[in-house]
Amino acid sequence: MLRVKILASAVPLVFAGMVAGGELLPSDQPCIALGAASLQIAAAPWQGQLHVSFTDDPAAATVRVQLVDDANIADFAVIDDVRTADDGTCRATAATTFVEIAERSTPADPVIYLTHESNADYRVFVRSRSFTARDAAALVVSARRNARLADHAT
Known about the structure:
Helix content: 25-40%
Number of helices: 2
Shape: globular
Largest sheet: 8 strands, mixed
Number of domains: 1
Oligomer: single chain
């Protein structure tokens, strides 16, 4: 009987931990370091402090991101063919800003259109096991937006 009571009291704590942290076991979410801070793709919808969405309609986009085949011409490149030791630069801290890739956006949120055409606001190169082109585009657009929000706050 005591075991059942212990189990019954532990289950709500495990659930609370999952809700607070967004997941039971931590996983590596795509992340970029920005000085002492970092931007990370949110693991759960309620974690997102910044929001972006994607569209297949170029007329509905507010930001265009070109996917390029050469890292030398990219504004942002992600290459992780070689496994390196984690140096902790993207560890979630109080300075981490989480980016949610939302299905729908508000008028204030960027709507990203991925393209291979050259008339884009940003160029990204992605060759990664952990990043998708959408992750890279969301982070680079959010990094620029986060910098503008920080400028307005001061």
